[in-house]
Structure formats: C-alpha cells, structure tokens
Sequence to fold (412 residues):
Amino acid sequence: MSELFGDLNPPPRLLMGPGPINVDPRVLRAMSMPMLGQFDPVFTGYMNEIMALSRQVWRTGNRWSLLVDGTARAAIEAILVSLIEPGDRVLVPVSGRFGQLLCEIAERAGAEVRVIETEWGTVFEPDRVEDALRRERPKLVAAVHGDTSTTMAQPLDEIGPLCRRYDALLFVDATATLGGMKLPIDEWQIDAAAAGLQKCLSGPSGSAPITFNERVVETLRPRHHIERGIRPEGIAEGEGAQIRSNYFDLPMLMDYWSEMRLNHHTEATTMLYGARECFRIALQEGLEARFARHALVGRALVEGLRAMGLGIFGDIANKMANVTGIAIPDGVDGDRVIRGMLEDFSIEIGTSFGPLRGKIWRIGTMAYNCRKDAVLTTLAAFEATLRQCGYSAPPGAGVDAALAVFRASEAA
Ligand SMILES: Cc1ncc(COP(=O)(O)O)c(C=O)c1O
Fold:
C-alpha cells in the first residue's frame, strides 16, 4: 500500500508577507458550509448576492461584478484574453513585476504590447501616460494599482479620464488593494478591474472578483460565441473572433451569472461561500473605516521600522498602505532573517523579485492581519531576529514607536 502520510497539521503561522494572509475565521466557517448544486435556486441566489455585495466593495453600479474561479491572475487573464484580439494595441505602464505580468498575459493573447517603464519604487505621473496614449493610441491600457513587488500604489484618479479622452479602455489589477485602499471604480472611470481575496479581503486565494462596465460589454458583444453543446435556439452567433480561452470567456461567464444561467464551469461553491463572507466582513466594517485602519497600521509599522534605524523602500508618498518595503542593511543576509522569523517566531515576511531580490524585505499588514497586536509582535520578533543576524536596533525602539502611533490615534 502506498504511504498515506500524516494528518494535515500546518503550523500556526502569522502571515505578515505580501499575501496570502491569515484567513478570517468567519470566512473559514463559511467555507465549511454544505455543498449545493450549481443550479440550486439557493445557490444561484448566493451568486446574485455576490454580485450585489461586490458592487459595493468595488464602489460601482456595474451590473457585471462577479467571480472568476481561480487565483487573481485568472481574473486578469479572463479580462485580457476576452478583450484582446490578435493585433490589438495594449499600453502597459510597468513599474514592477505585476506590470510585467500584464505584458506577458497581453502578449500571449496576441496583443501588440507597448510599454512605458519607470524605476521600481516609483510611480507614473499622468503626463507620461498621456504622452503614451497620444503616441500609441491603444485600444486598452492595462495598469496595476498596488504592485506588491515594489510596494508602490499607482495614483489612478487621473488615468481613467485620460483613457476616455483618447478612447482607450482602462483595466486595473487591484489584486492587492481591493478592500484596503480607496479604489472607486466608477468615480475613477475604470472600465474593468480584477482582484483576489488573499490580500485585503481576509480570504484564501482561489476566487477572483472582477467588475466591468458597459463599455467593456460593448467591446465583448461581437465575440459572444456560446459553446456548441449548450447553445440555445435563437441566439445569434457573434460576428467577431472567438475568444481563445473557453474557461476565461467573459461573455460565457456572463451567460452563467445572468438569468440565462447557461452552464459553463461548475462554480467553485466553497470559494463562493468564502468570497461572500469576505465581502460581508469588509462592508460591515465600512470601507472608509477599513481604509483608515490599513493606513494607521501601515503607518505604525513604518514608524517602528524607522525607529529601528531601517530605511523604507521607494517613494514613500506613493507607498501602498498595506505593504511596506524595507531596505536590507549592508552586510545582513536577508534570506537568513526571513528564515529566522519563520523558524523562531512562526512569522512569515517576504523578500522581493527581479532587481529588488535580496535588496528589500516586504511586510504586509492586510485585512485580518492588519492589527495592532500583529504589527507589534512582528516588530518585536524582527528586532530579535535582526540582532541574531548581526544588525542591532535600539532595543524596544520599534515597538515603542509603533505603540506611540496607535496611542496618538486612540487619543485623537
Ligand atoms: C498586484 C498583484 N497582481 C497579481 C497577482 C497574482 O495573483 P495570484 O497569485 O492570486 O494569481 C499578485 C499576487 O501577489 C499581485 O500582488
């Protein structure tokens, strides 16, 4: 008989990296509810509830606010592969790893990708985006809101109106910011956006919220081709090219999430339960209160790190509230610190990618883990681990400075 291995017994970690984070117990509870069939009216009722709840989280009136089954990049891929026809011009402002991911997905969908770049740790001024729009006249601009690889948040409020002026659609990857930083989809004139649950929504990865407006629907309409085996009588075939992916075909997902309830994939029931609870938790707290909590806890972390004599990475004015990059001091082995945090304190923090690999650590303060106690514990463990690795911060300074930020906010 083959080996059965032991019972699953993952160690209790405090996940303070750039995501995933610890899942809110309410979400875990929701995910243990009984299965339902995907056409059970109770279940389709939950699908409608998801749409209503997620519209509020996205701050949009978009009818099409639903879930793609898969991690955040599944939602990104669904939007890009459905919108892009081979030869379409797509403009991607790249300031980190996830901008590069958008290029890669758009290229695979056959786009003629045009890139503008800025150094990792900085963001784009709207003028640069406008110049590129004027020059390239893209069909679509694909931008990242919070790029966790650099910890920078691209200001987007002026980009949407610019895209409208140059008749381009705007897609935003909000994987790392939805529920943690302000991102009003309609107000900022974002045409489509995608996210995940595992950052600022307190959930596990595996379900990806998306929203898109009627401008996107109009672009998709000619590409509506229903799978042969389920095509109802009397529905005309679209005249545009078939979308290259069946799984990520947005018009078919719309048929499934609309009153037509045309079968597509078997909806991931457990993930949908989890997503529903994530949205309820965020809305119960209130989005403004949630953004303020992320800003406060992020600030406390930054002050704590500074008091330890550490440098904060990047353009601090545009730093994400929920992820902080820390310059690894000269002579310190960054990977050893990460291992020490995990082995001695069971706390996970992250390193970074590409040009920042070995140069910065990243600490996340998101959703369920965006808490005073989690930050104070992390700072205390970080101080001790750094000492083991040859960097001595003034003892207690990090925790004290972070506590001072919390005390000041409690007193205000
Ligand atoms: C900004 C951003 N976009 C996309 C992704 C990809 O998400 P996933 O790993 O859920 O596919 C991540 C994951 O860290 C991210 O931070």
